[in-house]
């Protein structure tokens, strides 16, 4: 091999390595010291990480959260109107009791749903609360995923294992999403990050 051939081979190898690093499957976003994948496979469809940030309570980091959508969106109404699968992923940054976590969820649901919405999803909301009551608690490093599966419903997973019942109504999943991106989000600094806004 000539020197020219060797240099050419090195350039090709370097380009291949760079392509591997930059490929969508290899990318990850670091949030609060944990890495969230740049894509997620939900209901057989690859979703893109729309935005990610840390949920704070007072000065304490509670969890890192990522919103995955079929295509990036920054408008809340458009996100709620999407027909494809969606995911909210959370990685715990501290231990949280099931009571505290469930209460925070229920408060977020109530704060962002009007009376008609609450009545429509009452049974599913109660089932959701019962699911949290059955959990022993969430530990630092645990990963909770809340998925919308078209034609199926809302499915929860803890560390990759399905938990609780499937909630069939899309209105319920949208109510869950509004915990973070509704008019009264659980964390005002997290909402713009999940919507993919910079800064």
Description:
- With 199 residues, the chain is an alpha+beta fold.
- It has one domain: Chalcone isomerase (3-Layer(bba) Sandwich).
- The protein is built from seven helices and nine strands.
- It has a seven-stranded antiparallel beta sheet.
- Helix 3 runs antiparallel to helix 5 and helix 3 (98-111) packs across helix 6 (170-181).
Strand share of the residues?
25-35%
Total helical segments: 7
Runs in which pLDDT lies below 50 for 5 or more consecutive residues are 5-9, 11-26
CATH top level assignment: Alpha Beta
- Distance N to C terminus: 51 Å
Number of strands: 9
CATH topology: Chalcone isomerase
Shape: globular
Report on the biggest sheet: 7 strands, antiparallel
Average pLDDT, all residues:
87
User: Portion of residues in helices?
Assistant: 25-40%
Summed up, the domain count is 1
Strand order of the largest sheet: 3-4-5-6-7-8-9
- SSE topology string: HEEEEEHEHHHEEEHH
Task: State Rg.
Answer: 20 Å
Q: Please identify, by name, the CATH architecture.
A: 3-Layer(bba) Sandwich
Broad structural category: alpha+beta
GO molecular function: isomerase activity
Pfam families: Chalcone_3
Protein name: Chalcone isomerase family protein
Domain Chalcone isomerase: 28-196
Summed up:
This protein is α+β, with helices and mostly antiparallel strands and 199 residues long. Helices cover 38% and strands 31% of the residues.
Looking at this protein, list some descriptive labels.
199 residues; alpha+beta; Chalcone isomerase; seven-stranded antiparallel sheet; 7 helices; 31% strand
């Amino acid at each position: 091999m000539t020197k020219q051939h060797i240099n050419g081979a090195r350039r090709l190898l370097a380009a291949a390595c760079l392509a591997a690093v930059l490929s969508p499957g290899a990318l990850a976003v670091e949030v609060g010291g944990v890495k969230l994948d740049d894509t997620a496979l939900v209901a057989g469809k690859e979703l893109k990480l729309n935005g990610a940030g840390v949920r704070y309570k007072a000065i304490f980091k509670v969890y890192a959260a990522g919103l995955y959508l079929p295509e990036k969106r920054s408008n809340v109404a458009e996100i709620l109107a999407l027909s494809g699968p969606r995911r909210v992923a959370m990685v715990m940054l501290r231990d949280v009791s099931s009571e505290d976590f469930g209460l925070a969820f229920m408060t977020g649901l109530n704060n962002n749903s009007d009376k008609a919405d609450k009545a429509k999803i009452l049974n599913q909301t109660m089932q959701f609360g019962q699911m949290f009551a059955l959990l022993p608690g969430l530990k630092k490093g645990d990963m909770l995923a809340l998925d919308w599966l078209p034609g199926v419903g809302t499915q929860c997973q803890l560390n990759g294992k399905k938990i609780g019942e499937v909630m069939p109504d899309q209105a319920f999943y949208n109510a869950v999403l509004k915990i973070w991106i509704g008019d009264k989000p659980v964390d005002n600094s997290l909402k713009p990050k999940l919507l993919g806004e910079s800064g």
